[in-house]
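User: Please predict the structure of the protein below. I'd like the answer in structure-token form so I can feed it into my own downstream comparison script.

Assistant: Understood. Taking the following sequence of 398 residues as input:
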Amino acid sequence: MLKDKFVVLGVTGGIAAYKSVELVRLLKKSGAQVQVIMTKSGCEFVTPLTFQVLSQNPVITDMFKEPPRWEVEHVALADKADIFLIAPATANVIAKMAAGIADDMLTTTLLATKAKIIVVPSMNVNMYENPITQRNIATLRKFGIFVLEPEEGDLACGYSGKGRFPEPRIIVEHIKVILGKDGDLKDKRFLITAGPTREPIDPVRFITNHSSGKMGYALAEKAIQRGARVILISGPTNLTPPIGLEEFICINTAEEMYNAVMKYYADVDVVIKSAAVADYAPEEIKHKKIKKQGLNLTLELKKNPDILQELGNKKETQVLIGFAAETDNVTANAQDKLKRKNLDFIVVNDLTEAGAGFAGDTNIVKILHRDGRIESLPKMLKRDLANEILDRVLLYLQ
């Protein structure tokens, strides 16, 4: 997403300026070119040399310094920028932007750019909540500038509240989402399921499986970064939901998953069912903990609704993708599921292969298409596999 993108980073005079050093490192690691502009106050917190070393570009601090080559520097930078990021953004620079004031290199370049602008406020909680600051932020948003909400917590000034600079990693993820808004999946609406389900036996026990949710979350993240509007329905996981979701629904049981999927299904373009939904649930849920009684315990199980089967029966114009995890007769079982459930394609992995299956960061899959084609993909990271799957979804949407 950021490879070869030109990011202009404006660093203003807030204590959080030191966190922008890590932001530059992450942007460079992601393949971006970074040009830093610092205000006079910003230079009081971090030296320009620090940003110069990390960005591998001279840092601009003086509007009237003679440029190394003949060009109107603020205009040239404004034209080159794919993203213009102000992080941290003080109340002062936010006020200048809202009023259209251009009295230094940063604000002058901002007025000249047509790039996407992201502002990351960081300040004392009372300054942030001041009605004037809030009015200025609302003005920026009105003009299409993205303002990232600061976090809550202890502030450098000794106060506690809203005004903390977000983690640089979070800012980079927001940049990816904003850059992707005009991507190849723009305006397409996705419903993605992820993770396991839990079928309760009693108040302390349940039936579940080894699904980590990593594949579904990677699919949601990459779809968002390619412009899609994504609804993610997730069973219990330890994962953080991707930034930019249209909606995030947490469920536990297969029945809850069924109800959530059916609620949204009719209004989406694509359904990707990567969740590992339990086929069976206890016939009766005990209201008290089951105590040890004898050597064996017998559970009566009932069949859960087959969500994918029902979606296939309802299918009209949507693209429908399923997943399968097999241990034997992998291709034959996947072909049977593909046909029975009226899928466009199915992604199947052999759980006996090293590097495939649940919990890990990698997978090895075959993609079986409704026209009979079978693609065997090499071992790769699930986040890379997500893009491979989305590339094929795109072909079915055309």
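That's the full token string. The first strand starts at residue 6 and ends at 11.
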